[in-house]
Amino acid sequence: MSITEIREEIARVDMEILELIRKRQSLAGMMAQEKIRAGRPPVDPDQRDQVIARAVDVAVEAGIDPSGIKEIFSRLVLMSEQKQRGCMGDGNLP
């Protein structure tokens, strides 16, 4: 594969990642609605820790830098929490 072809493939993977983040944000909105019905707060620290720990464990098994994955998933969870807060009327996101 040439540098150009590799870059094109990376760009395709990046688009897939963005689509998965969009889907994750959509699910966070759905989660907010369920939490409203259940009378639960938007943030669940135990769930946050479980999501991040699971990602780090998979990263270690896959030979991926676990500290980088921890940063990425910490950010993804924060984005979901912000989305849920916004959906619940406590934030600045739609």
Descriptive account of the structure:
The protein is mainly alpha-helical and 94 residues long. It has one domain (3-87): Chorismate mutase (Chorismate Mutase Domain, subunit A), CATH 1.20.59. Helix content is 81%, strand content 0%. The protein has helices spanning 3-38, 45-62, 66-87. The longest helix has 36 residues, at 3-38.
Q: Could you write a compact summary of the structure shown?
A:
The protein is 81% helix and 0% strand.
Helix content: over 70%
Number of DSSP-assigned strands: 0
SSE order, one letter for each helix or strand: HHH
The total domain count is 1
CATH superfamily: Chorismate mutase
Query: Mean of residue pLDDT?
Result: 94
CATH architecture: Up-down Bundle
Q: Biggest sheet, open or closed, and with what strands and sense?
A: none
Rg computed from alpha carbons, rounded to a whole number of angstroms: 16 Å
- Which stretches of 5+ consecutive residues score pLDDT under 50? none
In whole angstroms, the N-to-C terminal distance is 42 Å
Determine the CATH topology: Chorismate Mutase Domain, subunit A
Number of continuous helical runs: 3
Specify the overall morphology.
flat
Q: What oligomeric state best describes the polypeptide chains here? A: single chain
CATH class: Mainly Alpha
